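Appendix C reproduces, verbatim, an entry submitted by the partner laboratory led by Prof. M.T., so that reviewers can inspect both the input and the predicted structure.
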Amino acid sequence: MNNARIGVDIGGTFTDLVLFGDAGETFFTKVPSTPAKPEEAVLTGIRQITETAGVSVSKVAEVVHGTTVGSNTLLQKVGAKTGLITTKGFRDVLEIGRVRTPTMFDLSWEKAVPLIARRYRMEVDERSTADGRILKGVNEQEVIEIGRYFEAEGVESVAVCFINSYRNPENETRVLEIMREHFPDMWVTASVSVLPEIREYERTSTTAVNAYVLPSLRAYFERLENGLREIGVSAPLLISNSNGGLSSARMAQEKPVFFISSGRSAGVVGAGRLGEAAGEKDLVVFDMGGTTASASLIHKGELSRANEYEFRAGISTPSRFIKAGGYLMRVPTVDVAEVGSGAGSIARIDEGGLLHVGPLSAGADPGPVCYGIGGNSPTVTDANVVLGFLPAALAGGSMKLDIDGARAAIKRDLADPLKLSIEDAAFGIREVVNINMARTIKAVTVERGVDPRDFAILAFGGSGPVHACDLARTLGISRVIFPRSPGVFTATGMLAAKVERYFLRSLHGRLDQLPVAEVNALLKDMRADAHASLAEEGYTDDQIECSFEADLRFKGQDFEIPIALPDTVTENDRASLRASFREAYKAIYGYASDDSVEIVNIRLNAGGNSGNRLAFTAHKPEDGPADVTTRKVYFSRKDGWIDTPIHQRATFRGGAVGPLIIQSPDTTIVVPPGAKADLDAFGNVVATLA
């Protein structure tokens, strides 16, 4: 093996690594995550996987990484002490938001506290008009006084966002220069460098998030890069962004807001590549890890994407109708619904005697009770091991499970208070978490006017295959697909992604008056910027792919829908763009008016394709006799304990009828009674439910 690419996905419980060799060899490993210093698990895993593959670390050509550092920083509110410099009169934009609530009648809802405290939101007496004219410039002394105040208060990072700066960045750029000259130790983020787009709240919120997480993410990537060099890895470090593409570590350090959902989107990209190879064009992509579960949609071979999302605790859905629930980021992202229900989610009884599971997770530290490393509260993993769904050891036998400890915790905290047997209480945990996760699938199907019964579930993650068939039955889905090595599939998806860059230009006007020559000149300039940017990464012109979109809306509306734009626009494209927009609008809202249509922005997604992306190919099981044992599994209260065949994934050949369990070092696949399990040409296990 002369070259190796390594994909790394940090989860709440395990850090997954996949090594892809130049001749198609693949190896994987799972190591416990180290939440206090996430890079330690990465470095430990790289040493282990290169040793297993028999390749020197000097032969590693690329490390592709997805991280939860950004999302955890937001979730735990441990970001930098942040300040905001904004236009006079706009100090409270973060408080005002969109002037709405995510639900109308939830009296218990509490508005997310702004990441920047009001006393650190400072106003500057500057002004520019909607067409970009500077009415009042920046007073340098005023900015210096604000900087001195921030310095005295211990502010580490500053966001700068002025009204209408997306049309003319002169004043923002001047503030950036002043702050860097007089306060070089303070991180400063200007909105025009992150989101040069109309809408004051969206731009301010996105810039504030970037400033808030920038120091912690930058420090993490610096520690990781230094650690890689220390163990002998000189290869470039690429980071998976929220849109499922890859960017350099330098880009991630400068614009971390694009990487808050780093990792979770990579699995969807991998699912799209696998679906394309296997001819599966309609998939519900389901990923369940130790902390969260998420779902996304692939419809007619196309990944579902959006240009904004909100980060919040609990369920975070991509619904276009539910807003103001968290911290808004207007960045390209794979459209994913996520809920705080994972294998490590803690089960508890509330004051009313009802069973709840999540969103609080035991994570990797202290972990589920059955891990025996300090966890004391029963979790989903404890329920699954008590019911027999999981083996007595995980991660290829390296982690022995304390089944008796799990039973004792469930008995103490749940079974005895509810006057249930241990099995019934454990099964209740499983039922509740399944309902929670079914909500994520409904969020990307039913709430979009899509019938989930027309789709197959592609399930992965360390725990997704343990629950996927139950979810399918709940939703009336008849087929569930489990890829090879599903427990590390997100890391695999990163190796299937390509390097991407995003560019945006504001262009506001009526679509039927679209200035074709001006648009084509703009497209040409954006394409040139993309080629120059990707050339810095070593890509030649013939390796660069450009995809344009126009943000369109009905006149008088506030929000747009992205519509594909040709590389060169003609006069005839006005009508076709209008027709495409009305069709997309009707698909979302069920109705489209005959009002005139406006264009707001032009977007460019440019990708560098070097041809070394992981490809999914045909695969046959290993030769040799099937390795089958049995153990008792509790599939339902009606049937109780059932003697269940336990197959090893490496030698499983299909043609089996459930109940059965298929085990591998990375995960466990549960096939319920009456379901059929087969292998397809790509080595995927396909379960067909009765």
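DSSP finds 16 helices and 37 strands in the chain. Additional entries are available on request from the coordinating office.
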